Amino acid sequence: MQGLKDRLKRWSGSRLFWPLVGLVLVLFFNLIFVEGFFSIEMKDGHLYGRIIDIVKNAGCYMLLAIGMTLVVATGGIDISVGSMCAISGAVMAALVGGELSGIPHHSYGIAIAAALAVSVVLGLWNGFLVAKLEIQPVVATLILMVAGRGIAQLVTQGQIITVYYKPYAYLGSFTPGLILPTSIFIVAIVLTMALVAVKKTSLGLFIQSAGINRTATRYSGINVKKLIYMVYGFCGLCAGVAGLVISSMVKAADGNNAGLGYEMDAILAVALGGNSMNGGRFSIMGSIIGALIIQSITTTMYALGVSPQVLPVVKAVVVISICLIQSDDFRRVLADLFKKDGRSQHEQVAVKL
Amino acid sequence: MSETSPILTMTGICKTFPGVRALSNVDFKLRAGEIHALMGENGAGKSTLIKVLTGVDKLDAGEILLDSRSILAKSPQHAQELGISTVYQEVNLCANLTVAENIFIGREPVRAGKIDWKEINKRAKKVLERLDIEIDVTQTLDTYSVAVQQMVAIARALDISSKVLILDEPTSSLDAHEVKKLFEVMRKLQSEGLGIIFVTHFLDQVYEISDRITVLRNGELVGEYETALLPKVQLVSKMIGKVLDDLSSFNKDKKTTEDARRETPYVSAKGVGHLGSINPFDLDIHKGEVLGLVGLLGSGRTETARVIFGIDKADCGEMHVQGNKTVIASAGDAMKHSMAFCPENRKTEGIISELSVRENIILALQAKRGVRKYIKRKEQEKIADDYIRLLNIKTSGKEQLIRNLSGGNQQKVILARWLVTQPDLLILDEPTRGIDVGTKAEIQKLIVRLADEGMAVMFISSELDELLRCCDRLAVIRDRNKIAELTGGELNEEVVMHTIAGGENNAGA
């Protein structure tokens, strides 16, 4: 019994505990109120079901959240990721081309590589504004957020490019021969890359340190500027990958609407993951859970027949509740309310005196 | 002083932090019209006692009476409403607001739904006049010196409420003249019947101004004494809990630095300067010597160190390390040449508050080794344990967050961070500021020992006697110029003072 209590205490002390509680609560709600939510079936060699949908559709949020977590950890923010998604998708679609015959202009591999290279350059641009010109991150990335839509339009020449080349759809749905959606594998690869970089090298320590006290970090001989370049560059890469997935899902590149508003969901995922927006300590796994929570809520709402118009309101309420659950102060107040004698801790101290 | 009834009584105060018993059963009494010094080493519980009193931390047990009424401040704001105001060590006002705005922020007088700026400025001026300060209250706070900012903080505290005023290390960043001014203000307030709690590390100041002294040690009350009846030596031994023998007698046996001077200096700056902070200077630092930088606050001591360590890139002159010309453009460059720099401002330039003691200690070593060669967790833990033991760092463990440590122990962690890198040149900027006597002596001894072991040490301090005690050579800096170097027989207070003050350089010769 004592051992169980200790273990429980250790779990609840973990950074991932409360984000996980949030996710479990959402899923538990589905278990009770949505029929067949957890059923999974096999069709044409692929798995289908709501749970699979959630993981698949959360893919781009997860990708964005991985990059955003590191940016937020340095005390910054990147609100241009949505636009970067659009540019990346536009570059890929433009290079593959919208031939009805389905024959690509350039090879698919080159198109993907070019799209990702452009994304990294865009990320480094953000890094340049933040590290070198020392513009506040929100303002610095706002530039690309606004301009990025225009760049995407330029790339697609103002058209929505629809791609008929078959493999183009693989990234956003299934690849023949794989049971699970392709995005799950992509997330796994990027996530592993990020986790290795953060845990197996000292990058994680340096990013935290720079996020908490930039001056002291610099004085300790760490090149903070280079660090910021790297982090924003990586965030750009993540946005680029997410952009490929988004574009692949609709088999088209829409400079105006691809990834629209995704930056907010990415930031939300980071926050729901229990990460401080002030920088410092961070957990990439937390953000992954945050992204899953967001997508679970959306899927649940659709399953319940909530109309897309009111969806944001319901989503907001759920998100606020989950944030409250994660707040130590809120839980203390709640615990005080339910105390048997109804007195708050503070008064009890006074009584003891 | 007659036994007037106390305005503030704290009895049986207990406070425990995770892993640390910060206060156990402490009593404290403050009478009206009294300046009461609160003394103790770092980690003795002074700050915690103040925090409990002002509602920053909740107390675990005990009672606080103000004017014989039991109070329990819920927050610093609540404490202020009750009549207890605090001025902290680091001035926490808004530097980019005007003086008047700072005094009235959060409680601006309103007229017809709008903030009455005329009234604010008028009243701010009046409050400051009470402290005999006449400045333009519509200027932003950062246009004034730290001393004036401190006065503004006091003025704000007084204007809100005034029964008890707490001054937490108010003099640590003031020069002698400013301290005198502060004391005048304190005496004036004392005569108006205010009770003042004065927290400081400067023994002389305690004897100059206070009526009573309460000494804490390891979270426990040692006793309350009348200042006039307690000799200084006894006070110190009460603070550190043992009889003081080696503090005053400890003295570096000054080596004949002539021998060392003939060798190539470890670092040699030739005409190095940085526009707007320090004018070009020549400076040699040899292995095995302690070089002191002396000068008034703001004279360019820190700036000299920053240029040598590459935080400010030199815009003229040449740097030589072991005789080879080199460029030092960043802290990383300096570290490649085996230099280390403990900065002056512990809080903003030293500690990474949210990281553990272990992470803080290995940070510079990790930076030196590079991103890819991540130090294994086991090795990190060993390094942390070793240095916690070596420097006698008081912490509940290596995984404790550094912000939970007392100031002196934080300083030791920063020192450990640099010692781990095994530097050949160690630059220390005010390593003993705001640190208790015991730790101070420890650090001074460490400095001398490191130099004896062959390290070059550059030591910056505002306290002349500790420089004279530790250094082989002193470089004197005035108004952003290095004006003299003193060695041997010139290393005495009179000559140094004379040089700083601008007399003939070789007055002692």
Envelope shape of chain A: globular
Largest sheet of chain A: 2 strands, antiparallel
- Contiguous uncertain segments of 5+ residues of chain B: 244-252, 504-509
Mean pLDDT of chain A: 88
What's the domain count of chain A?
1
Mean model confidence by pLDDT of chain B: 84
Structure description:
The complex is a heterodimer of chains A (353) and B (509). Chain A is mostly helical and 353 residues long. Chain A is built from 15 helices and 4 strands. The longest helix of chain A is centred in the last third of the chain and has 27 residues, at 224-250. In chain A, α5 (108-132) runs antiparallel to α6. In chain A, 46% of the residues are buried. Chain A has a single domain, classed as ABC transporter involved in vitamin B12 uptake, BtuC. Chain B is α/β, with parallel strands linked by helices and 509 residues long. Chain B folds into 2 domains: 6-242, 3-Layer(aba) Sandwich (Rossmann fold), CATH 3.40.50; 249-338 and 423-501, P-loop containing nucleotide triphosphate hydrolases (Rossmann fold, 3-Layer(aba) Sandwich). A 6-stranded mixed beta sheet of chain B has the order 6-9-10-3-11-12, sandwiched between helices. In chain B, strands 18-19-20-15-21-22 form a 6-stranded mixed beta sheet, with helices on both faces. In chain B, strands 2-1-4-5 form a 4-stranded antiparallel beta sheet, with helices on one face. In chain B, β7 (110-111) and β8 form a beta hairpin. In chain B, α14 crosses α15 (377-390). Chain B is globular and about 70 Å long. Residues 244-252 and 504-509 of chain B have low confidence and may be disordered. The chains are: A mainly alpha (353), B alpha/beta (509).
